Every structure is written in C-alpha cells, then in structure tokens.
Amino acid sequence: MNLDPVIHAPARLQIVSLLAAATEAEFAFVRDNLQISDSVLSKHASALETAGYVEIRKGHVGKRPRTWLKLTPQGRQAFREYVATLQRIVGQPLADLPRDGR
C-alpha cells in the first residue's frame, strides 16, 4: 500500500481535495480557501499538471486575466485511490481499538 507521492505533499493533497468537490475552481478561490500564496499554489498546481492530475486553463473575465484549475479524469482516479489507500492504512487499526482508546 503506497501513497501516491504526487498527491501526498500536504499542499497538493489540499488542492486535489478541494478540486475533487468541484467541476473547476478559479485560482484565487483555491488560494484563498487553502490560505497559501500565489507562488505556492502555482508551484504545486504545475506539479499536479505535469503528473496529468490537474488541467490549468487561462482566460479572461472582462479584461482581467484569470486562471482556472480542474482535476482531470486521471487526477480524480488518483485521488480516489489515494483516499482508499488511506482508509486501508488507518481503517483496520482504528476498528481494532477499544472505544475508550486504550
């Protein structure tokens, strides 16, 4: 059971988690919700794009440039597998613990 190293970085996991709940999200929305800088988001979004997990689309709203991020089908599948792996890792030990945590 290996966790996907592309998704495993905390900032990337947050990005992918946020994008999994949306069709597409504007760069500023992702940045503000995750409370990270433009440069951190840009760096991690580029890594996810290189892996084929995120599509980055640039355009304009009026005269203002905008950037949108969305998970690709490959990214959605990788995220599902990542979450399933986490559940396998933590699920069994938690189920075996007594209710009082001892």
Which helices and strands occur, and which strands form pairs?
Layout: H1 5-8, H2 10-20, E1 25-26, H3 27-34, H4 38-50, E2 54-61, E3 64-71, H5 73-96
Antiparallel strand pairs: 1-3, 2-3
Brief synopsis:
With 102 residues, the chain is an alpha+beta fold.
Description:
It comes from Actinoallomurus liliacearum. The chain has 102 residues and is an alpha+beta fold. It has a single domain (5-91), classed as Arc Repressor Mutant, subunit A (Orthogonal Bundle). It has five helices and three strands; from the N terminus they run ααβααββα. It has helices at residues 5-8, 10-20, 27-34, 38-50, 73-96; strands spanning 25-26, 54-61, 64-71. The protein has a three-stranded antiparallel sheet with strand order 1-3-2. The protein starts with a helix and ends in a 6-residue tail after the last helix.
Total beta strand runs: 3
Largest sheet entry = 3 strands, antiparallel
The CATH architecture category equals: Orthogonal Bundle
Low-confidence stretches: none
Mean pLDDT: 91
How much strand? 15-25%
The number of helical runs is 5
Shape: elongated
Counting structural domains, the number is: 1
> Structural class, from secondary structure content?
alpha+beta
Instruction: Give the strand order, joined by hyphens, for the main sheet.
Output: 1-3-2
**Rg calc:** 16 Å
As for the CATH topology, it is Arc Repressor Mutant, subunit A
Q: In angstroms, what separates the terminal alpha carbons?
A: 26 Å
